[in-house]
Design goal:
32% helix; 415 residues; 19% strand; Peroxisomal Thiolase, Chain A, domain 1; two-stranded antiparallel sheet; 14 strands; single chain
C-alpha cells in the first residue's frame, strides 16, 4: 500500500487561450504556459495549507513544450511560483498524454523512499499557439514514428484502428457502433456543462442531438464530419491549454489535514509496444488491464468497490474500451451498457467522467493526468468541481499516453 497522500490540489480553467487576428491569422497568447504553471502551483500549495518553503521537490509533467512553445527545460520554471522554491530539486517527466501521471508516480516514489516529505506535482500544456496541422504533427511524435507518424498517421487514425478492431472482434455493426460512441460522448458533454473549469460546456448532450449532426445538408456536408472512420468530430477530444497541480506528503505527515486529504492507495504503471502493427489485440487494452490489476491489488480493492472514475476519453472508443479495462463492464459490452443508461451520475455502481472527461473538460495533454487526480481528490474530500459523485469513497484515474501505450491507473481513497 502506498504511503503517499494528496493534501492540496488545483485545476486551472481549460480552454483555447489565444486571440486570433482574422485579417492576418496571427495568434496572440492570452494565458501563457508560464502563467498556467505558476497559477496551478500556487493554487495547490495554498490549498494544501503549507508554505512554499515546506516543498522539498517539484515534479513537472509536460508532453511537448519545446515544440508547442519553443521552451524546453521547463521544470525550473516552478521557481517562479515562489522565491522559497529556489534551489529545490526539480525535474520533468514526458510520457505523451500520461506525462503528469508519471510525474505523480515519481513523486510517490520520492515520498516512499523517505527522501522527501512534501512534493509539488504540476501538469501543464499550451497547445493552441500552433495551427491545427502543426499541432497534429507535433502530437504525431508521440506515435511510433517509423511506422506511424512518418507515414502520415494521426492519433484519430490510430484510435480508429482500435474502433475497427473492436467492431470486428465483437461483431458490432457500424450503425450500432455510431450510437455507442455518440452515447459516450453525450454523457461527457452533459457532465462537462456543470464543470466551471471545462473547455466546452455547450456540446450536444443526448444521443439524438449528436446523431442529428451526422445528417448531410444540401451541400453534402454535415456538422459532425468523419475524421477517421468510424470516428467523427464529436468522437474526438479538444485541443486545450491548461494546468493542474497537487501537493503530496507522507501519511504520517497529514496530521490535522486529514479531513482534506486523500490516500493514493494503489498505482499501476505499464507500457504496451509503441507501434500498433505489432500488437496482437487491437480491441482491448492489454497493458491497461495489467495496470488496473496491479493498482487494485495494491489498494486492496476490486472494481466493485470503485464509486467513480476519470477515464482517458481522448476518443470515445477509448472511453468504451477503458470502461472494460477497469472492470466496470465485460469485454465487448461497455457500449451496450452506455446505451442502456449506465455510468451516469445516478449510477448506483460507478459513475464515469463526472468532470466531462477529455471530451468536454478538455485535453491539454501534459496536464491531463494531474487534472484527473486533482478532480478525484476534490470529490473525495467533499469539494467536487462540477457534478458530485454518488459514491465518493473510492475513485480511480485511468490516464494513457500515446495510442494506449503508457497506462497509468491510480486508486484514490478517502482518508
Amino acid at each position: 500500500m502506498s504511503k503517499a497522500c494528496i493534501i492540496g490540489a488545483y485545476n486551472t480553467e481549460f480552454g483555447a487561450f489565444v486571440k486570433k487576428d482574422k485579417a492576418t491569422g496571427l495568434l496572440t497568447d492570452t494565458k501563457t504556459y508560464y502563467d498556467m504553471l505558476v497559477e496551478a502551483g500556487q493554487g495547490a500549495i495554498k490549498d494544501a495549507g503549507i508554505e512554499a518553503g515546506d516543498i522539498d521537490a517539484v515534479f513537472v509533467g509536460s508532453c511537448s513544450p519545446g515544440s508547442f512553445n519553443n521552451q524546453d527545460h521547463v521544470a525550473p520554471l516552478a521557481v517562479e511560483i515562489d522565491p522559497a522554491l529556489r534551489f529545490k530539486p526539480m525535474s520533468r517527466a514526458e510520457c505523451a498524454c500520461a506525462s503528469s501521471s508519471v510525474a505523480l508516480y515519481n513523486a510517490v516514489y520520492g515520498i516512499e523512499s523517505g527522501r522527501y516529505k512534501n512534493i509539488l506535482v504540476i501538469g501543464v500544456e499550451k497547445m493552441n499557439l500552433l495551427p491545427t496541422p502543426q499541432m497534429t504533427a507535433v502530437l504525431a511524435g508521440c506515435s511510433h514514428w517509423p511506422s506511424e507518424g512518418s507515414k502520415g498517421w494521426s492519433f484519430p487514425m490510430l484510435f480508429a484502428e482500435y474502433a475497427k478492431g473492436y467492431m470486428k472482434q465483437y461483431n458490432i455493426p457500424a450503425e450500432e457502433m455510431e450510437k455507442m460512441l455518440a452515447t459516450a460522448g453525450a454523457l461527457c458533454y452533459k457532465n462537462g456543462a456543470e464543470n466551471p473549469l471545462a473547455h466546452q460546456k455547450a456540446g450536444p448532450k443526448t444521443l439524438e442531438e449528436i446523431l442529428a449532426l451526422n445528417q448531410l445538408d444540401e451541400r453534402g456536408k454535415c456538422k459532425n464530419m468523419m475524421i477517421a472512420k468510424p470516428l467523427r468530430l464529436h468522437d474526438c477530444s479538444l485541443v486545450s491549454d491548461g494546468a493542474a497541480a497537487l501537493v503530496l506528503t507522507t501519511m504520517d505527515n497529514v496530521g490535522s489535514r486529514k479531513a482534506r486529504a486523500s490516500h493514493i492507495a494503489g498505482i499501476g504503471h505499464t507500457c504496451e509496444r509503441l507501434a500498433e502493427n505489432v500488437r496482437p489485440n487491437m480491441y482491448e487494452h492489454m497493458a491497461g488491464k495489467v495496470a488496473a490489476a496491479n493498482a487494485y491489488k495494491e489498494a486492496g480493492i476490486t472494481a466493485a468497490d470503485v464509486g467513480f472514475a476519470e477515464v482517458h476519453d481522448c476518443f470515445t472508443i477509448n472511453q468504451i474500451i477503458s470502461t472494460e479495462t477497469l472492470g466496470f463492464a465485460a469485454d465487448g459490452k461497455a457500449g451496450y451498457e452506455y446505451m442502456a443508461g449506465r455510468f451516469t451520475r445516478d449510477d448506483d455502481k460507478v459513475s464515469i467522467n463526472l468532470s466531462g472527461g477529455l471530451k468536454s473538460k478538455g485535453h491539454p495533454v501534459g496536464a491531463t493526468g494531474a487534472s484527473m487526480h486533482a478532480l478525484i481528490h476534490k470529490q473525495l474530500i467533499g469539494e467536487p468541481i462540477g457534478v458530485p459523485a454518488k459514491r465518493a469513497d473510492v475513485g480511480v484515474a485511468f490516464n494513457v499516453g500515446g495510442s494506449a501505450v503508457t497506462n497509468c491507473v491510480t486508486v484514490l481513497k478517502k482518508l
